[in-house]
Amino acid sequence: RALIEGAVAEAAATSATRRDIAKLDDILALMRGTAHPGGDSIAADRSFHVAVADILGNDAVTEIVSQLFDQRVNPYFKQLARYFETPDSWRSALEEHTAIRDAIASGNGSAAASAMRSHLVASQERFSKNFGPNLSAGSAKSKRTNKSAPKRQPPLHPRIPAQKQTRRKLI
Question: In this structure, are residues 104 and 77 in contact, taking their beta carbons and an 8 Å threshold?
Answer without folding.
Answer: no
